[in-house]
Amino acid sequence: MTTNSTISLTRIAREVAEIEVRGTAPLIVHRWSEKARRMMLDAQQGKKNPKTAKDPVEDFNTSMYRFEDGGHGFPIMAFKSATVKGGARLFGKSVKMTELRQLVTFLSDGLCTDGTQLARLVADEPIMREDMVRVGMGTADIRYRAEYRDWSTTLRVEYVPSVIDLSSVVALIDAGGTNGVGEWRPEKSGSYGTYEVVGE
Questions:
Q1: Residues 145-162: pLDDT tens digits?
Q2: What residues form DSSP beta bridges with 16?
Q3: Secondary structure (DSSP) of 63-112
Q4: Cβ atoms within 10 Å, residue 66
Q5: What pLDDT is stored for residue 33 in this prediction?
Q6: Cβ partners under 8 Å of residue 7, min gap 6
Q7: Separation CA 145–CA 61 (nearest Å)
Q8: Cα(110)–Cα(123) distance, rounded to whole angstroms?
Q9: CB contact set of 87 (below 8 Å; sequence gap of 6+)
């Protein structure tokens, strides 16, 4: 004997929250320039590039993430990664990293000139940093990068309220601020790029 049954499902409701975060430490950025990408590709293909003189101003300018309209931004996925790692670290077994990656979707404000999805920064003009770094087999090099002293951004986050509520989303993003984003963040043994939630 067979019976006919109809599957009836209700569309899952989604909501988008706008959550403002403010930097509690300067943000150091280091975007891979087109020149650096090309040189890496050439090296992988066995092509040699002649050495050129270092241009601090060019290195500084190309270290920034810019929208096509010239505005400043930072990769949205960096904030998601910080949220996942910070939430898993601070809230322990109550949340799992694999679940966190699926619970929230970070929406970009647009694209960088290289196609990277960005959150728009509200910040003063960055200053140029000159840092000594170790690369490769411990070889010393000088890097010129942009640093935003005072910065903030509004993160647009899509979530499913029947699975996770807004206060939990805010708590996770605030926890991500202790992980930080950008160069020399706490996750990488530094003290830059931290932030906190200031509004929703």
A1: 999 999 999 999 999 999
A2: 158
A3: TSEEBTTS-EEEEHHHHHHHHHHHHHHHHGGGS-HHHHHHHEEEEPSEEB
A4: 16
A5: 59
A6: none
A7: 8
A8: 17
A9: 95, 100, 171, 172, 175, 176
How many CA atoms lie less than 13 Å away from 153 in the CB half-sphere?
28
Q: Considering only 26-30, 46-50, 162-166, which range has the smallest mean pLDDT?
A: 46-50
What radius of gyration do the chain's Cα atoms show?
A: 21
Q: Which contacts (CB < 8 Å, 24+ apart) does range 186-192 have?
A: 187/82, 187/85, 191/25, 192/25, 192/26, 192/27, 192/28
Residue 109 CB neighbour total at 10 angstroms: 17
- Among the residue ranges 55-59, 71-75, 96-100, the one predicted with the least confidence is 96-100
Give 111's strand partners: 117
